[in-house]
Amino acid sequence: MCGRYTFEFTARSLAAAFGMVPPGFAIRSGYNIAPGQYIVIVRPERDQRVADVAFWGLIPGWVKDPNAFSKPINARAETLEEKPTFRGAFKRKRCLVPASGFYEWKAEGKAKQPFYIHPAEPGAPFAFAGLMEDWHGPNGEVMVSACIITTEPNGLMAGIHHRMPVILPREAWPLWLDSAAQTRELAPLLVPYPAERMAAHPVSLAVGDVRNDGPELILPDRT
């Protein structure tokens, strides 16, 4: 799964990285972004890309009571067209989730060691393949939500965890965000990211507590 990640962008750097105008809302860096929080996504709007804010935990439009729904944070690439929760969003509501890196925990006996995984190229962003939905409430309220698609691990991630987020290379962004694209065209994108374009190192156990949020969390663990 992908359950924690980092977001080290300003409005200007986000716009430059994803080829769009700067968002019209406040951008704040986060070093321990967790499910149930509001996250920044990039979605299509007419012939351009725009930034938006979404709740991390997908709520399909057909849900009657969001409080009684499980709100999945991840969707398995292998079953997107089989699961009613994800089927509609995969066909017509795709987005990118900008990230600077993400965390995963490696089981070591009875303990779990957190690792920070990030682009091998300094300053380069990750763009997770995401799904989004707009839930409309009975009183006219609208809630935008999103989840991150996962796939099998690449060579780097296989030594840490059995899943990893789908990370889309820049050249795949236009197709992923194209509302006219067919799912058969999109399926080849949902593969492990090249291991040589990623790096990983162990970090402090402090990242396990969502109340901790600071740049020290991504520093290599020297213990």
Automatic annotation (TrEMBL):
Keywords: Covalent protein-DNA linkage, DNA damage, DNA-binding, Hydrolase, Lyase, Protease. It is an enzyme of class 3 (hydrolase). It comes from the Bacteria. InterPro entries: SRAP, SRAP-like. The keyword Protease applies. Its EC number is 3.4.-.-. Transmembrane segments: none annotated. Belongs to the SOS response-associated peptidase family. This is Abasic site processing protein. It comes from Geothrix rubra. The lineage of its organism: Bacteria, Pseudomonadati, Acidobacteriota, Holophagae, Holophagales.
